Amino acid sequence: MATNGSAPAAQAGAKPVQISEVRQSASRENRTAAHSHIKGLGLRSDGFADANAQGFIGQTAAREACGLVVDLIKAKKMAGKAVLLAGGPGTGKTALALAISQELGTKVPFCAMTGSEVYSAEVKKTEALMENFRRAIGLRVQEKKEVYEGEVAELTPEEAENPLGSYGRTISHLLITLRSSRGTKKLRLDPSIYEAIQKERVRIGDVVYIEANTGAVKRVGRSDAFSTEFDLEAEEYVPVPKGDVHKKKDIVQDVTLHDLDVANARPQGGQDVVSMMGQLMKPRKTEITEKLRGEINKVVNKYIDQGVAELVPGVLFIDEVHMLDIECFTYLNRALESSISPIVVLASNRGLTTIRGTTSPLAPQDPGLVSAHGIPPDLLPRLLIIPTHPYTAPEIRTIIQTRSKLEFAAPTAPQLTEESGASAASKALAVRSSLSPEALEELTVQGVNVSLRYALQLLAPSGILARARGSENGVISGNDVQEAVALFWDAGRSSAQLKEREGEFIS
Ligand SMILES: Nc1ncnc2c1ncn2[C@@H]1O[C@H](COP(=O)(O)OP(=O)(O)OP(=O)(O)O)[C@@H](O)[C@H]1O
Ligand SMILES: [Mg+2]
């Protein structure tokens, strides 16, 4: 439902700001793979955390603190504030941030980035930060629009003699009959709408809606009733609209400020979703300038004052925040003070460390500015710090168990069945795996002695080893885990070996 001229500012005669619905890019969602067992913070209605709920095990204090943050965000009391998740590697900081995003639901924008993402040869560091800031600020535009909606049953342009003489005939108006589930309506439309209809390539059997105020025509798709005639893959079939043809329709659009920036930086092309998506593929021609952002902010503020739009401050999550440098931190400080700022959630696994960008190659001995978590001392006091703690052995055991259920639940290769004549090896892959008590114990030992992450990474190879030796039902034994441990080094063993066999490697 893209609407250009329908934006309230256009009606008010102000500089039009195009509002288009843009789907979130899918690439950012892929990040959840390592955390797909996490379904939320696992809090009870009174806000306390269960020891094991929604895939989250232990770390109760941090989960409860995150629950409070979610409540504050929902009550819109957190804008411009920042939270830091601080704890050692593998203590669930990233998992907590993703659980926050799940608790907030899809209506609140959540933008995840990693500190190192700001370093690009093409875009300025602060520009990359600003872009993500604006991805995390949503705008809900609500409008009641008078529309005519239905399946096109008749489409006749009426011609008339050209009053100016010999130039043949012109279209004087357009007759269109729209059918909805409640009835039909015949409309006599202005010739300018005929052009719009031609542009959208509307023909009989399409479902369209026409905005009464602006005359904007939008083709919704092909009516279901016509679905049998050709089976064109590109065609989207939609049901005949319910209710009357002429009605008031509540149109709510959720956009982020970044969507508005992009739509307005590229004035060329159509404003509907398809052409917007097409433009995403093309190289960026028009830069989003500070001036453009200022203009958009002005219009957005006006919408908010008029009550047409509502600001939805979302969450900007910056993982590995110690990767940002001093310039970015200064910028972050300033951005947090802006009147439209999202909630910023930071995560760092560093202790006292040098802030990036404070050392100089001219003074290699100088350690630079050392600060907690690699965050400058002027930003630190503004943060609410949520600590995460290392897990106990029973917690590690339960996390491994939860994760193994997810990893081994579906056959690795569901399409390979006996009937398809698959080879023995690939058939083996199609068998489910499970952990024997000894294997679980062995993995827990690795989790305690080495790290939780290492233990989790051993799961998949142990499963394959169990299946390869023909274990019944793919049950993983303690030996399979030990074999995987022998095959794959952990970080500690790797560095110990490197020291021992220094001569073999280039250094
Ligand atoms: N309390 C928990 N319950 C269930 N799974 C967890 C829990 N904590 C961590 N995990 C899982 O353990 C793995 C490591 O956790 P995560 O990536 O969140 O650590 P991190 O604190 O972000 O570490 P790093 O500092 O290295 O980025 C992930 O797969 C995560 O889903
Ligand atoms: Mg992490």
Automatic annotation (TrEMBL):
<keyword id="KW-0227">DNA damage</keyword>
<dbReference type="InterPro" id="IPR010339">
    <property type="entry name" value="TIP49_P-loop"/>
</dbReference>
<dbReference type="GO" id="GO:0006281">
    <property type="term" value="P:DNA repair"/>
</dbReference>
<keyword id="KW-0234">DNA repair</keyword>
<keyword id="KW-0156">Chromatin regulator</keyword>
<comment type="function">
    <text>DNA helicase participates in several chromatin remodeling complexes, including the SWR1 and the INO80 complexes.</text>
</comment>
<keyword id="KW-0805">Transcription regulation</keyword>
<dbReference type="InterPro" id="IPR027238">
    <property type="entry name" value="RuvB-like"/>
</dbReference>
<dbReference type="InterPro" id="IPR042487">
    <property type="entry name" value="RuvBL1/2_DNA/RNA_bd_dom"/>
</dbReference>
<keyword id="KW-0804">Transcription</keyword>
<feature type="domain" description="AAA+ ATPase">
    <location>
        <begin position="79"/>
        <end position="368"/>
    </location>
</feature>
<keyword id="KW-0378">Hydrolase</keyword>
<keyword id="KW-0539">Nucleus</keyword>
<dbReference type="Pfam" id="PF17856">
    <property type="entry name" value="TIP49_C"/>
</dbReference>
<dbReference type="Pfam" id="PF06068">
    <property type="entry name" value="TIP49"/>
</dbReference>
<dbReference type="GO" id="GO:0006325">
    <property type="term" value="P:chromatin organization"/>
</dbReference>
<dbReference type="GO" id="GO:0016787">
    <property type="term" value="F:hydrolase activity"/>
</dbReference>
<dbReference type="GO" id="GO:0003678">
    <property type="term" value="F:DNA helicase activity"/>
</dbReference>
<feature type="region of interest" description="Disordered">
    <location>
        <begin position="1"/>
        <end position="34"/>
    </location>
</feature>
<keyword id="KW-0067">ATP-binding</keyword>
<dbReference type="InterPro" id="IPR041048">
    <property type="entry name" value="RuvB-like_C"/>
</dbReference>
<keyword id="KW-0010">Activator</keyword>
<dbReference type="GO" id="GO:0005634">
    <property type="term" value="C:nucleus"/>
</dbReference>
<keyword id="KW-0347">Helicase</keyword>
<comment type="similarity">
    <text>Belongs to the RuvB family.</text>
</comment>
<keyword id="KW-0547">Nucleotide-binding</keyword>
<protein>
    <recommendedName>
        <fullName>RuvB-like helicase</fullName>
        <ecNumber>3.6.4.12</ecNumber>
    </recommendedName>
</protein>
<dbReference type="GO" id="GO:0005524">
    <property type="term" value="F:ATP binding"/>
</dbReference>
<dbReference type="InterPro" id="IPR027417">
    <property type="entry name" value="P-loop_NTPase"/>
</dbReference>
<dbReference type="InterPro" id="IPR003593">
    <property type="entry name" value="AAA+_ATPase"/>
</dbReference>
